[in-house]
Structure formats: structure tokens, C-alpha cells
Amino acid sequence: MTEDMQESDTKAYVDELCRQARSASRQLAALTNEQRSAALREIASRLVEAESLLCQRNALDLEAGREAGLSSALLDRLSLNPERVQSMAEGLLTVADLDDPLAGAIDRWRVPSGLDIEQRRIPIGVIGMIYESRPNVTADVTALCVKSGNAVILKGGKEAIHSNSAIAEVVTAGLHAAGVPETAVQLVQRTDRETTNELLTRDDSIDLLIPRGGPGLVRAVAERSSIPIIKHYEGVCSVYVDESADLASAADIVMNAKVQRPGVCNAIENLLVHAEVADRLLADLTPRLQEAGVELRACPRAIKLIAGATAASEDDWSTEYLDLVLAVKIIDSLDEAIEFINSEGSGHSDSIISSNNDNAERFLSLVDSAVVYSNASTRFTDGFAFGFGAEIGISTNRIHARGPMALRELTTYKYVVRGQGQVRD
After folding, report:
1. Is the pTM for the entire model greater than 0.90?
2. Domains of the chain, start order
3. Which of 74, 84, 231, 381 could form a disulfide with 266 if both were Cys (CB 3.0 to 4.6 A apart)?
4. SS in 3 state form for the chain?
């Protein structure tokens, strides 16, 4: 195939994806909440039935990933097992049981002219999703988009093509059985860059684009897309242990925030410790972290208290490791912690551990992140943990959506105006 023929073929392929998605979005928006929820329950049931097939297909991706030298963290993101398949199904059921995000008016009022104005929530329309590694995203995004009345075009990474294709087959069958347009959820079956680049130009067909993956993917999409996007580049998250902190609780929170699942965006990369409690906290916490396999990179003051630590570089403070690596810095004040997080962090999730309510409230007010915590692990920045049922991603945008993006964030609104023959003077 010549280059011109290939370009023409790619354009035609994307044309058809977009045409079908727009048509399906209009049909989906006309369905009742009960119809949309029934489709999710049907898909959930079929996912459980297909567990063995999904794991077999996933094994092909895992084998290819090992051969390609993917890190243990990336292989963990890619992996499916019976528990994760069950979790995907439960996520669909949870979303199905949530209230209708399109129900009722947001607001109503009457203006002096006598017009009755209603602000009504509606679907965005067609969502484009470009993501890496995690095949569970295919199911999560399906749940959120179908429930909120949006059609979605899914473009997963080549490293998960077998897994994503298997899940998409189940989704298509479930939608068909429930009487919902099958093309409401479409997986791009091509893994070439040209198809992705063509999708990024379709601002006439795709209403919102959400890239979910490493910073390289997000930046590439942001630079090339003509479609409005919701993004977060990195999860450079921090815990600050204040001088008034309960140190036993602080140690447990830090362990959870770093070790429980280090390869995710809400795991911490920086530990900030007030100088007044640094020696006591690190004496207890350092052995626990090192026993868990965490590599510690420390500032000049902290390295004196941490046997086996290496010196942190300036780049370490703003690096998303997605691995068992933690940068440790001793500081002298709450305001220094706030300044550090606002300058070195990525605006994702940050936490203060403190028994001083004034300090905690100052931190919560002045740290400029999508999610801020007092006396809790950053690992809770998640659609499930927030009670949303699932999430389509974590947004660090300042407009439209911020933090875990769920059903409400996948809607917009229109104004419905009722009159009795009014004309404007």
C-alpha cells in the first residue's frame, strides 16, 4: 500500500468510527436511565462469564510486555486476574446503581419578562479516550460513558491490545443484548500512530478528549489535538508530616501512600518532615520503608538520619517514579512545605499529617492541588474511593473538571426556555 493509499484508508477508518459514534450518542441520550443501567448489568454479567478468556488474552499481552522489557510497575498495571475481572464487573454494577446523572433540572428561575428558564444537564456527546496499559480502563470508561449517555471511542495502547479487544467484545455483546447501540462503545483496533493522529484532528466529531497514561502520552496528545482535552501530566504527590503530628499514624499513612501500590498516580513521591520530629519519625519509618524495598533519596539534612539513603538531586523532587522510590526532605515550617508542594508538585494530590487544626486548614486552603488531604493517605484519590463508582481519569485541569472524573464530569448543560409569546423590546 502506498503512503497516499494508507493515509486515505486511515481517514476512512476514522470517518466511520466518528460517524457511528455520533449516531450512537444521539440514540443513547434518548434512552432512559433504566435502559442504560440494564446494559451495564448485562455487560457485568458477561465479563464474569468471560473471565477465563479475558485472562488468556491478557497473558499474551503480559508475555509481549516482558519481552519488551516493561517494568514491574507497568506489568502490574497491565495484568488481569480473576479478582481484577470481578472488580471490573462490580464497578459496572456500582455505576449502574448510581442516580441518573441526567435527571432533573440543575436550576430553574423566572426572569422579569415572564420567561421560565431551566438549566438542564445533558451528555457531552462523543468522548475520545486515549490510554495506556490498564485494560480495566476499557470497562470503567464504558460504565461511565453509557450511564451518562455519551458515546465513546477508545484507543488503548498496543501493549494491551489483546486484553482490550477481549473486553470490547464482551461490551459489544452486552450492549446488543440490552438493546443499546453497539457503536456507543468502539475500540480502535489499530495500534499505529497514524490512526491516533487522525483521531486528534476530529474536533468536528469528538467533543472531548481524555488522555490517560504517562506524561509523554499526555503531552503528545495536548500538543497535537484540536479537540478540547482533560489531562493530568503526572502524579507528583507529597505527604507533609507536621511538627504536631501523631507519628505512629504518620508512619502508617506514609507506608500506605508509598508502598501499597507504587505504580499509580496517587502514590506519593515526596515525604516532607518538619525538623522538630524528623529524627523520631525517620527512626521508626526508615526501616519499614527499606524492608518494603523502597529506595530512599534524601536531602543533605535527611541523609544524616537515614542509613543507606542516597543524595537526592534537584530533579528528584519533581519526578514521578511510579516505583518503590521516595524522596525525603526535612523542612522548617508549614509555609515551606506549602511552597515546596506548589512549586515541585504536579497539582494532583497532597496530604498533611497534623494534630494542629489551624495548620491543617492552612495547608488545605493554600496547597494548589486537585485533591488535598488532612490526616489521610493520598491513595484515596480514586473514583471508587470517592463514592463515584468509577472514574474516567484524574484531572488537574482548572476548568470543567478537577480531581476524579466521574458521571457528573461527563455531562454539560443546556438552557430550556418556556414563554407565553414574549418578544424582546
Report:
1. no
2. 3-231+397-417 (3.40.605.10), 237-380 (3.40.309.10)
3. 381
4. CCHHHHHHHHHHHHHHHHHHHHHHHHHHHCCCHHHHHHHHHHHHHHHHHCHHHHHHHHHHHHHHHHHCCCCHHHHHHHCCCHHHHHHHHHHHHHHHHCCCCCCCEEEEEECCCCCEEEEEEEECCEEEEEECCCCHHHHHHHHHHHHCCCEEEEECCHHHHHHHHHHHHHHHHHHHHCCCCHHHEEECCCCCHHHHHHHCCCCCCCCEEEEECCHHHHHHHHHHCCCCECCCCCCCEEEEECCCCCHHHHHHHHHHHHHCCCCCCCCEEEEEEECCCHHHHHHHHHHHHHHCCCEEEECCCHHHCCCCCEECCHHHHHCCCCCCEEEEEEECCHHHHHHHHHHHCCCCEEEEECCCHHHHHHHHHHCCCCEEEECCCHHHCCCCCCCCCCCCEEECCCCCCCEEECCHHHEEEEEEEECCCCCCC
